[in-house]
Design goal:
The protein is of the alpha/beta class. The protein contains 19 helices and five strands. Helix 9 links the parallel strand 3 and strand 4.
């Protein structure tokens, strides 16, 4: 049941489902997870699909149904990009790893990141749970694991089946080695249909106590394209900016424009004037500090290009280049390399 609250609450957190039955969309995959939860016999899982399509939400909801109050004891979450994109600077900030690292100074860490990753996963997976048949380790953004880490993970999945189940989540399954993909039941997630998302928006409107017009809903659906997180973020900004007025098309447009202001606008401007050094710094900040995926950066960059007001032939040329970069990312190429190549190409 959704309760009344102010816009000070982050809606993407407030409305995140805690049970599988609360998830909107992806009925086939969610029903499969529900049957597995009822049977208490969960295999290794591979959840794949576009960013913000509900993969992590489903994994957390599954764990809540499996363990109830024992959720925190038996469910462990890791984001692979934290290990392999942020590296040792991230590891020293995570208190879970202090004992294993033995120091909070990244300069004193002699082990490689992949060695640390293997040691951490091995330790969590090898210890049998006290109040359950097995524990669950969820590894998000698993496409950022390098080949050696993937092979090590495959061996651990085989070795610790008696004590642990692994759930892997990825936006690019082609970047995972075939032996790793074959170890788990693969479930596909997609963005939510306009009908379901529209009903969800109306429910939030009723419970939060703000009016939204039908045109406003259609504008939000067009902007978010089935992405629940984007729709919630945009809607919350629109409510704050509206000061109690009904949320219509203009309010959604103003909120959407604000989302594009900042790093992505700076990246676009740096690319168009040929400032590669500044563009590379912005790409690093977005990938490492802000945690964006390459796909998310391309998506935002595309929206910025379309709304840039440049001549149509130039927008068309840039859009084709963005599409080419997206295709190359899908073929298991490195996100940073493709983004830097795109920025260099946009200068020409």
């Amino acid at each position: 049941m959704i309760t009344q609250a102010s816009t000070k609450d982050l809606w993407t957190v407030k409305y995140r489902p805690s049970r599988l039955e609360e998830i909107i969309g992806n009925e086939e995959s969610v029903n499969t997870l529900h049957r597995l939860a009822l049977s208490r016999n969960v295999p290794h899982l591979l959840l794949y699909g576009p960013a913000n399509s509900g993969k992590a939400t489903a994994a957390f909801a599954l764990a809540h149904e499996l363990y109830g109050e024992g959720f925190e004891r038996n469910f462990t979450y890791f984001n692979a990009s934290d290990f392999f994109d942020k590296g040792k600077s991230y590891l020293i900030r995570d208190k879970r790893f202090t004992r294993i690292l033995g120091t909070d100074d990244p300069r004193k860490i002699q082990k490689s990141v992949i060695s640390i990753f293997k040691e951490i996963i091995n330790e969590y997976a090898s210890v049998a749970p006290i109040d359950s048949d097995y524990k669950v380790i969820f590894i998000d953004s698993s496409e950022t694991l390098d080949v050696n880490a993937q092979h090590a993970l495959r061996r651990m999945m085989e070795k610790y089946t008696a004590t642990c189940r692994f759930i892997l989540s990825t936006t690019q399954p082609s970047r995972l080695i075939a032996p790793l993909r074959s170890r788990g039941l693969q479930l596909f997630f997609r963005h939510v249909s306009d009908e379901k998302l529209g009903n969800f928006i109306k429910r939030i409107s009723e419970n939060e106590g703000f009016p939204v017009t039908e045109d406003g809903i259609q504008a939000l659906l067009y902007h978010s394209r089935g992405n629940v997180a984007v729709s919630l973020d945009t809607l919350q900004v629109a409510v704050i900016l509206s000061h109690g007025e009904p949320i219509g098309t203009q309010a959604i447009y103003d909120a959407a424009v604000r989302e594009e202001v900042g790093e992505i606008r700076s990246l676009f401007e740096a690319a168009t004037v040929g400032n590669m050094m500044e563009a590379r710094k912005i790409i690093d900040r977005m990938l490492i500090d802000n945690g964006f995926t390459g796909y998310e950066i391309l998506e935002r960059l595309h929206r910025t290009v379309v709304g840039s007001g440049e001549p149509e032939h130039r927008i068309a040329r840039w859009t084709i280049k963005i599409a080419d970069a997206n295709f190359k990312m899908m073929q298991a190429a490195n996100d940073r390399i493709q983004l830097e190549a795109l920025v260099a190409d946009l200068c020409n």
